[in-house]
Amino acid sequence: MTRLFRWLSQVVAVTWLNLRNLRARAGASLATVVGVAGVVMVFVGVLSMAVGFRETMVSAGRDDGVIVLRGGSTGEMSSGLALEETRIISDAPGLLRPTQASLTSSEVFVIIDLPLRSTGTNVNVPLRGVGSSAFDVRGTIEIVEGRMFEPGRNEVIVGKTAQAQYAKLDLGSTSRWGQAEWTVVGVFTAGGSADEGEVWADAKVVQPAYRRGNSFSVVHGVLDTPGSFAEFKDALTADPRLTVDVHRAQDFYAEQSELISGLITGVGYLIGALMAVGAVFGALNTMYSAVSSRAKEIATLRALGFGSGPVLISVLVESLLLALTGGLIGAVIAYLLFNGFTAATVNFTNFSQVAFAFAVTPALLVQGAVFALVMGLVGGFFPAWRAARLPVATALRRL
Prior knowledge:
The protein has 399 residues and is an alpha+beta fold. 51% of the residues lie in helices and 19% in strands.
């Protein structure tokens, strides 16, 4: 116990001496902090794209929600359901029935061209034909500007995120989509979900404008309880009149987000790794310089009886502290710059744009700090090892 206490006392003493001398190496230390901060800022910023995209997609589905598509469809764009099929789906057991009718929404999903406000480039944006029940099924839709579209009229309401990302969606503006002229009469929010990146209109007006007859793309519904999913799915898949795929809403949107979020995450780690190499070399240079400038001091401590272990740990602590400081600064900058920043990317399952907001979450900030500590550990280990193995006699001759 006495030896352990003595060893710990040496660690504290040498580490404190190192930290007190940081001011004398302010330039090199600052370079390390800035380098690590830059790496963490970019790393967290890129990953916040993937997190924001996934959160935007998944939040579009409620935990008791279901989505029914034609069998074999990869998404709403490639799906098609006849009117009679949507009625059979709405009559299935397991659905919530606040009245005699079940809480379902038969919807038409088509694509329109709109220019991005930032570049003017035309992109594919979802136009969703809905009925009044769609608002109860979603449960998060709120008109924040203008008014609701009137049934039977060529009017649309646009998501707040869509209005921010795409041109020609200002209140009162008109555009020709399909075989009709449409007027923007309202702006809605949807709790930050993917629905905010869409344009909504009356399904009965969208159908003739796009020659859809009485067909729909998808049926969204609400279960009586989340545990009713198996009963609902079994009833539909066993019905010989139907060939459908049944999904929990949150699972469906999570699957839709996997490709893009996985791609962005992979790019984020690759960029972070490449930048980290530079930051590690910067840390190595800083710590080697620190060890070289303190060679006499380290030799004196060793001659006084301080062990090599406390010396090694003290250098590592200094490197980790500099890296953590840079990591925290980079994480804070990333939060201030990226959190809530809106952008749009292609959802490859339906080749339409999805507008979303970057999300710098607490877990992502912790990940950035851990990444910084790893850089500090790698950048400080070899200089620390050198300091611990520094020959006492050789260093003392320089006194």
